[in-house]
Amino acid sequence: MKSIYSNGFKISGVVLGLILLLASMAASIRFGATHFSWHASWEAMFHYDESVKEHIIIRTARVPRALIAAAIGASLAIAGVLMQALTRNPLAAPSVLGVNAGATCFIVTAALVFSVDSIKILMWISFLGAATAAIFVYVLGAIGRDGLTPMKIILAGSAVTALFSSFTQGLLVMNKQGLNTVLFWLTGSIAGRSSDILLTVLPYMATCWLAACLLAREMNLLMMGEDTAKSLGQRTIVIKTLAGIIIVILAGGAVAIAGPIGFIGIVIPHIARFLVGIDLRWVIPYSALLGAILLIVADLVARFVMIPEEVPVGVMTVLIGGPFFIYIARKELIKT
Hints:
By secondary structure, the protein is mostly helical.
């Protein structure tokens, strides 16, 4: 009897994941406050007529929204995989370790204080905020004789998240006129985002997706223990730095497009490891597919909760990921 983790099973899972991804994107394009027929959706995609209102809505709103959800879901899931591997902490994720909060704080500061509205500039500001938060977490977690430990990383991440969240709230209190400008964005939303926003960030995200896959083998060695990795000739500092850069770009890019969307980076890596084991060469692509599917489906469901209004997708991911986070946290506490 073949193991559930056989290569045949894994390849079949990738194919199934791609089919589900395409199906979820098709559903995202068709369904919403306004439903479109399959025929209209097909015609808009492959026989576009700019004089037809339905075609315009599908091509300028629904298609970019589905693509943005897929890109952000994949990015946050891969960032979560790398963070958990790097810290050896099953609770690590951009939303938990303050990376999202740092990027959010820097963007809010740029938008409200300096009136920055260029997505290219905000993207780099988001990268800077994510990197600053990650450095803070590393420094705080490394203080003490025992160095970095899973518990200290979580505590440091919670402290940094609270710090940057406080700064963000303070800016919003002092600038009430700008509150409406960023309020919906702060909850995490992909509604109303154009394809231009995605195209600005996508090259960096796609490069990091590929880099994460190429780095998977080295990360597998690092997960065996730093001493073991060094004895096999690995330059662990270089690998950690590269992984950190990938995490910052993926998380920062996601925040720049849609604001802070939480729990994708926690939930998806655990599901991927359940399906294919701990080999990151498979966990990373599985996580990318599952993350994309989850965020597309969450966004689709969010459209129907309060019709004709929409619930921000960030709220939906909290509802999905919150209980899972509590379950994992309790499980880890029982182990210790």
